[in-house]
Write a structure and sequence with these properties.
The protein has about 260 residues and is of the alpha/beta class. The chain has two domains: about 5-180 and about 220-245, 3-Layer(aba) Sandwich (Rossmann fold); about 185-220, no CATH class. The protein has helices spanning about 15-25, 40-45, 60-75, 100-125, 150-165, 190-195, 200-215, 225-235; strands at about 5-10, 30-35, 50-55, 80, 130-135, 170-180, 245. About 45% of the residues are buried.
């Protein structure tokens, strides 16, 4: 589905980035993983055939230079996917949350998404084609105890729709995926970073089970599911999809 395509995955060192890289490579794409830590990037790229580059996707100059480097090495950029963590902090009522904890995912999330989407859009518009993808939880309508996650999702939702309107005439598609949690990507470490400290494996399994029960299908999306969807959206089979968010929450949120 992605034969001879060139894909860049920002935040590619995580389990979801590795899963998408594997799917993209299996579909025929040349994949570049981007992240801040070489050891985790190397591990994510292992066995996929993906290449990797170490940089901070929140650094405008670094992202622009990297995009130019990919074009020099591979000839073009066909797919750009941003999976960079935003620093979400959850599990605390808004009345007890600090301003910094609330605004961090909003500010960091929208800045990073803008920087990477802009870099991709500039090069894709020049070549007359390309697909820019994003991913968030789909919580823009508001979810209790999730801190700034809903606000961050809402800002990114709007950014993606606006980019699609502006670069669509140049042949570039822009869309996103709502997941409301990818359960097999959840670990005690990730949950601790979001504010849920002191969790053992049984507690993590309990959170995964709770998320499953919130779905219409009683099954949360898995890494392989999202990777398959990201492959479809990046392919010519998804050529009519742009300016929107695909609801992959298994019914947790209404579209």
């Amino acid at each position: 589905m992605l034969k001879d395509k060139v894909a860049v995955i920002y935040g590619g060192a995580g389990s979801l980035g590795a899963g998408v890289a594997k799917a993209y490579a299996a579909a025929g794409a040349r994949v570049f993983l981007v992240g801040r830590t070489e050891s985790t990037l190397r591990e994510a790229a292992s066995g996929t055939g993906a290449e990797y580059d170490v940089l901070d996707a929140r650094d405008e100059a670094a992202v622009e230079a990297h995009a130019s480097s990919v074009v020099e090495r591979a000839g073009r950029i066909d797919i750009s996917l941003n999976l960079v963590p935003r620093g979400d902090f959850q599990g605390v009522p808004l009345t007890e949350m600090s301003l910094a904890d609330y605004t961090r995912p909003v500010v960091q999330g929208i800045a990073c998404q803008f920087i990477t989407a802009r870099a991709a859009a500039r090069r894709m518009a020049a070549q007359g084609s390309g697909v820019i993808l994003s991913l968030d939880s789909g919580s823009a309508n508001g979810s209790p105890m999730l801190g700034g996650t809903a606000a961050a999702d809402g800002a990114i939702d709007a950014l993606i729709r606006q980019f699609a309107q502006e670069v669509g005439p140049a042949g570039v598609r822009v869309c996103g995926i709502w997941t409301a949690g990818v359960t097999d990507s959840l670990t005690a470490e990730k949950l601790a970073a979001a504010g849920a400290t002191g969790l053992d494996e049984a507690a993590v399994q309990g959170i995964r089970g709770h998320l499953d029960n919130l779905r219409m299908t009683r099954r949360s999306p898995r890494i392989a599911d999202i990777a398959a969807l990201a492959t479809f959206l990046a392919s010519d089979a998804g050529c009519s999809i742009t300016g929107t968010w695909v609801n992959a929450t298994a019914g947790m949120f209404a579209s």
